[in-house]
Design brief:
354 residues, alpha+beta, Phosphorylase Kinase, domain 1, Aminoglycoside 3'-phosphotransferase, Chain: A, domain 2, 2 domains, five-stranded antiparallel beta sheet, two-stranded antiparallel ribbon, 13 helices, 13% strand
Length: 354
């Protein structure tokens, strides 16, 4: 769910459909004359950002064109720098075919439309488990490989610090709790929520940091060429080892069986954090899930109320249940849990600690 914190300047610069197609036509005529004559330009559904995506279809071959809302300097575009870094770590990412910063264009390999979310709809239990093992192993690979090489890219300078984590939690309060659900928090409620958010952010920010994809879930993994390929990684930053794991296993879009989650968590721990005691790893994972799921609810609220896009509303019940599961697990989160449950009844579920 990255990319939703869009500046007013970028939002204002977002092209309408007609202007976007005109710009693409100019780009193809100038930079891709072989495409200009015969490529069919098909608009694709995008993510929560102001980027637009198009498939350029030419018979049996196609490419994907990402159109940014304003020009960029290629050397400064996070998507390109992170893509190069991931590739150097041996991770699967789409190939870049061309870049036109003046027009805000990145032309890239077409990975098709088959996300992990779609594959899982009809996958057998054995195939599902295999796919998740692959996804977990890729995260461990990122953390280990990125720590071994030079860390000059901008993503290494950004982190889930107290300020960022706290901002995301208050984003949940603003756009989901108050915005979507219309909660009228009392002074006492606000104090409880603010204190709990600060304490949670403070603890998470104190943990060791590794490089994180930042939005690692079933809609950002494409099944292509016999493997899972990463997309939407431009917001990569430093954060807890459990961040991407929490995003993947407590996914807003699909259910991962509890038994499989336990197996995958231990598989990941043995690869990425073998010296971390299981109980420490478990606590960090659970608290990371709380933060991550509340932020996801904030994004869904933002999309529904600000962007007037209701597509994410269907994923709210699962995400609330994920948050409830871990809020109910820890005594130190009980005041936060009970306070939020007064305004989001689904979080309560009897208000008894698990």
């Amino acid at each position: 769910m990255g990319g939703d914190r869009v500046s007013a300047k970028a939002a204002a610069a977002a092209l309408d459909a007609e202007a976007a197609l005109a710009l693409i036509g100019q780009y193809m005529a100038d930079r891709q004359p072989k495409l200009a004559g015969g490529a069919q330009v098909i608009a694709l559904s995008g993510d929560a950002s102001t980027r637009r995506y198009y498939r350029l279809a030419m018979g049996g071959h196609s490419l994907v064109l990402a159109l940014y809302p304003e020009p960029f300097v290629p050397e400064e575009l996070s998507y390109l720098s992170v893509r190069a870094l991931l590739e150097s770590c041996g991770l699967p990412v789409p190939a870049t075919e061309d870049v036109d910063g003046a027009r805000g264009v990145v032309l890239q390999e077409d990975l098709g439309d088959l996300t992990l979310q779609e594959v899982l709809r009809d996958a057998s239990g054995a195939r599902r488990d295999e796919l998740y093992r692959e996804a977990v192993d890729q995260v461990a690979q990122l953390q280990l490989r990125a720590a071994q090489g030079p860390q000059k890219a901008a993503c290494f300078q950004n982190a889930f610090d107290i300020e960022k984590l706290s901002w995301e939690l208050h984003y949940f309060q603003k756009h989901f709790l108050e915005g979507l659900r219309g909660a009228d928090l009392s002074v006492e409620d606000r104090a409880v929520v603010s204190e709990a958010f600060h304490q949670l952010s403070q603890e998470i920010a104190s943990w060791p940091r590794v490089l994180c994809h930042r939005d690692y879930h079933s809609r950002n993994l494409m099944a292509h060429g016999g493997r899972l390929v990463w997309i939407d990684f431009q917001d990569a930053r430093m954060g807890p080892a459990s961040y991407d794991l929490a995003s993947l296993l407590r996914d807003a879009y699909v259910d991962v069986p509890e038994g499989l989650q336990e197996d995958l968590k231990e598989r990941f721990r043995q690869q990425a954090a073998p010296d971390e005691p299981r109980e420490v790893f478990r606590r960090r994972y659970d608290l990371m899930c709380v933060q991550r799921n509340l932020k996801a609810l904030g994004t869904f609220g933002f999309m529904a109320t600000v962007r007037q896009n209701p597509v994410y509303l269907q994923y709210i019940p699962r995400t609330i249940e994920h948050a409830r599961h871990n809020l109910a697990r820890y005594p130190e989160l009980e005041r936060l849990w009970r306070t939020l449950a007064r305004h989001v009844p689904e979080l309560g579920s009897g208000a008894t600690r698990e």
